[in-house]
Design the sequence.
DNA sequence: TGTTAGCACTCTATCAAAAGGAGTGCTAAC
DNA sequence: GTTAGCACTCCTTTTGATAGAGTGCTAACA
């Protein structure tokens, strides 16, 4: 059977109505639509076909129909309105003074949650292949030195280090010089035993300190960027009756609290290589069990080449896809602006 | 009327039973207690008295009795068992390698939530009256310098700074020398205009850079320590039927997500000056509206004099106070150990 | 041939009444 | 002072009846 124009229209109406109400949609409701002008009986015939084709199902005999994942998929793929974006200026809601990127992202999550009434999560930017740009160790007092490492993406890591024997000023200068000349521009794979041996030979003693410093550098380069995930509005999920009753919802809320799970999700999902920036996952497509009754819309933002992060919105399947997509799109361009000005 | 020994015993049994089951407790249930060996009729008389005295209430005629806040108060004040602490070694559950304090505290929250099945929150340590211990600026490339500030509590702050004109090496050494000699040991109130003027006179030019650096220092000293709150197990709250149905619970979950609210709470609650380290708030005593059906147990940890943070557990009123208090107590001593070894 | 009206049927949601259960308060006896 | 017994209350659960919504099918219509 083929999806006739009319079937499509009816399906669209069913989906739209269901998105609004969350209740199964019956043939009479549809028949009232002035655009179609068909009797409920005709609609019933068509609905019967649509059901056979797997686009809608009845929760039970004598209930209206509700869209299946397949229908949602069709809807978001082909029926989304290019509606005129009268989305509020999100930028205004972002505190312009937010100098630090983490504060900004936290705000993004919050603004999105407030605007959409769904749960949102934002992952911090992930830097790939980090290299050492600058190293400096500085004695602070007799028993501790401060190690500062600047990476090529201008991230700065620092840590205090306890030492057993004091290091004199001259030694510090020598150490800094050797470390910088030897390690500058290397990534973690290039710091092999040969190089380490070379450093130790040049310095002569204080090998314990060198080991500690090298360990710090290793951590700085491999560290998981502290899996920074900002979430907001997780409790919005409880606003949708079809979700709030489910047992999976507790699990889902948990996932939002234990950001690690979400992090995994973002990790395993490839940076949707230059396809389209906005991706929609419906039900099982999310591959997350506790989200099987939810939909998820994600967008990828890019700060520079290779530096990207994700923004995700989780809600019921009957999500207002139109609004979510356009809000996200608008937000992405505004973020672009902000990053470009930096 | 006075609380006789027997009344106390009966009340205790009622509370214990209710803590376990969450269901109203009837006279028959109590009469089965081998320790009391009284008929249900006798119990009924006593219960009637207890009700009159405000320790228990009936949710409706012909239901069992449930303890009031007053009864809980009495219970935690006088009846808590000094039960032999067979609490698991929490320390083992804390990853010893957790070098950084924020990782440690995050773990503390999680371990507590897992052990108690309640929601937990941990506030990061708050440092009072911070002073400058060490300042260093370092040129990274032509247009940026790195500023590192070490505070007297050994916290390290750093930030990149864009500059218009390059600074030569000699100038950097001079700047560092002047900044350190002038500002070392000062807190934010002591950095007045006179001192700033003195610095600028000594350096001669580059006043723009100095302004920026001083601003950073100011921020580092006054910054709100990023109101670090770690929460865990918020969804545990949903495990208790008497809470999960309430509308306040969504609000409470929200409070856990928006950590700010909790932060406020911790802020306004004084660092319970050397009283007892563990405090119990029942119902309205929490002063938080969304917690009026909950109880909260908090403990204060101290890293050094004047450096403290709080650990809190939120659960239903029928919380296992015994366990929570002893777990917290055990955790506090173990944290003490960890901090002392530092 | 596509559309529609009509009707029987199914299932759910809702309400009221009934039954069962738990618990109390009171009284009288021990 | 304690307890057994009983009437009473109120909640919870079950049951049955009813109304409503929606469907599928058939027959009539254009």
Sequence:
């Amino acid at each position: 059977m083929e999806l006739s124009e009319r079937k499509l229209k009816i399906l669209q109406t069913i989906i739209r109505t269901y998105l609004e109400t969350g209740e199964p949609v019956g043939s009479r409701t549809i028949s009232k639509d002035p655009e179609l002008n068909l009797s409920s009986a005709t609609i019933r015939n068509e609905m019967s076909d649509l059901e056979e084709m797997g686009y809608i199902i009845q929760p039970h005999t004598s209930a209206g129909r509700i869209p299946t994942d397949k229908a949602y998929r069709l809807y978001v793929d082909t029926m989304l309105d290019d509606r005129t974006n009268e989305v509020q200026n999100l930028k205004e809601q972002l505190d312009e003074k937010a100098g630090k990127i983490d504060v900004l992202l936290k705000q993004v999550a919050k603004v999105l949650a407030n605007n959409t009434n769904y749960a949102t999560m934002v992952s911090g930017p992930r830097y790939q292949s980090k290299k050492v740009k600058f190293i400096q160790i500085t004695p602070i007092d007799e028993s501790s030195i401060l190690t500062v490492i600047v990476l090529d993406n201008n991230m700065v890591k620092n840590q205090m280090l306890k030492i057993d024997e004091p290091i004199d000023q001259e030694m510090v200068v020598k150490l800094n010089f050797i470390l910088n000349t030897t390690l500058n521009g290397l990534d973690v794979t290039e710091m092999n035993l040969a190089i380490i041996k070379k450093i130790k030979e040049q310095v002569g003693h204080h090998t314990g300190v060198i080991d500690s410093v090298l360990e710090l550098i290793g951590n700085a380069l491999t560290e998981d960027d502290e899996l920074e995930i900002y979430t907001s509005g997780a409790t919005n999920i409880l606003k949708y009756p079809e979700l709030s009753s489910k047992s999976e919802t507790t699990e889902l809320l948990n996932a939002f609290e234990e950001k690690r799970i979400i992090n995994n999700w973002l990790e395993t999902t490839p940076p949707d290589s230059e396809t389209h920036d906005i991706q929609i996952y419906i039900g099982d497509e999310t591959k997350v069990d506790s989200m099987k009754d939810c939909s998820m819309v994600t967008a990828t933002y890019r700060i520079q080449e290779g530096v990207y992060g994700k923004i995700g919105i989780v809600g019921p399947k009957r999500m207002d896809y139109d609004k979510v997509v356009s809000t996200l799109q608008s937000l992405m361009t505004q973020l672009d602006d902000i990053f470009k000005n930096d």
Q: What stands out?
A: Residues 24, 26-28, 40-41, 44-45, 47-48, 58, 61-65 of chain A lie near DNA strand D (CB under 10 Å from a C1'). Residues 5-67 of chain A form a domain with the Arc Repressor Mutant, subunit A fold (CATH 1.10.10.10). The longest helix of chain A spans residues 321-341. The first strand of chain A starts at residue 56 and ends at 57.
